[in-house]
Amino acid sequence: MQQQTPPPNLPFLKMHGLGNDFVIIDSRGRDAVVTPDLAKAIGDRHCGVGFDQLAEIRSSEAADIDLDFWNSDGSRAGACGNATRCVGRLMLDELGRDEVTIRTERGILIARDMGDEVSVNMGHPQLMWDEVPLSHPVDTEFLPLEGEPVAVGMGNPHAVFFVEDIKAVDVPGWGRKVEFDPLFPQRTNVEFAEIRSRDEIRMRVWERGTGITLACGSGACATAVAASLRGLTDKKVRMEVDGGWLTLEWRDDGVWMTGPTQLVFKAEFDTSFLERV
Ligand SMILES: N[C@@H](CCC[C@H](N)C(=O)O)C(=O)O
């Protein structure tokens, strides 16, 4: 990918989906400007803006836009469901359509206007060990780790643990340990899920490269898939995360996720901040 120095007073937007918060930079019509160092500097909640993920919009030949994701530690993420819904909302409004296409590392995703909410088809889950990816062949439905999580790829890796009482789970302690387990060569996102009924799940997440977040869209998709694979729920569920509610449906054409989005503010970076990175 071609990269250029950010222009002076680079504009950006702050959005969130259920408290999963994002800085969005629109680089359409120029080369990408985000580097690992810039993502880290902007992601600093004290000296930068702070975000769970940074999304950079770029011109696309294959879809309405291309979209790249960065975690707050400066690492890249192949998928980010909630940022895709947020940017989907921007594009739906800008183009005045009820459906837009967004190309991510995951492939071309569809975002659909649902009135107050946005739905995204996050694609088919990746259920083979090398697709997740894992470091060696194992049964992805019962990983050989304490708690036997399910491994699901959604364009990024997830390990989903089913627990009796989510309030009793040490999410940062357990999450960090699993994120760095050698079974996951690219590290992993970690979800803890309590099944409330065949159509309702409570989920908390530890995100790779970021830590605890109030919601994780790809993690919600992975959790819905894992619960259905284990026969614990139907294919359509409501999921309560720390920041609110999502609806997930595993259909023949992929996993659809629906929920709210919010634009918080539009601003620009001071040039002196950009120059110090
Ligand atoms: N918040 C996201 C997931 C972000 C990416 C993740 N931390 C990773 O490194 O894979 C979502 O809404 O999906």
Structure report:
By secondary structure, the protein is of the alpha+beta class. The chain has two domains: 11-122 and 261-276, Diaminopimelate Epimerase, Chain A, domain 1 (Roll); 150-249, Roll (Diaminopimelate Epimerase, Chain A, domain 1). The protein has helices spanning 36-43, 81-95, 171-179, 217-229, 271-276; strands spanning 11-17, 20-26, 53-58, 65-71, 76-77, 99-104, 107-114, 117-121, 150-153, 157-162, 189-197, 200-207, 211-213, 236-241, 244-251, 254-260, 262-268. The protein has a 17-stranded mixed β-sheet that branches. β14 and β15 form a beta hairpin. The longest helix has 15 residues, at 81-95. It is globular. 45% of the residues are buried. The mean pLDDT is 97. Bound molecules: the ligand N[C@@H](CCC[C@H](N)C(=O)O)C(=O)O. Residues 20, 52-53, 71, 77, 79-82, 156, 189, 207-210, 213, 216-218 line the site of the ligand N[C@@H](CCC[C@H](N)C(=O)O)C(=O)O. The ligand N[C@@H](CCC[C@H](N)C(=O)O)C(=O)O binds at residues 20, 52-53, 71, 77, 79-82, 156, 189, 207-210, 213, 216-218.
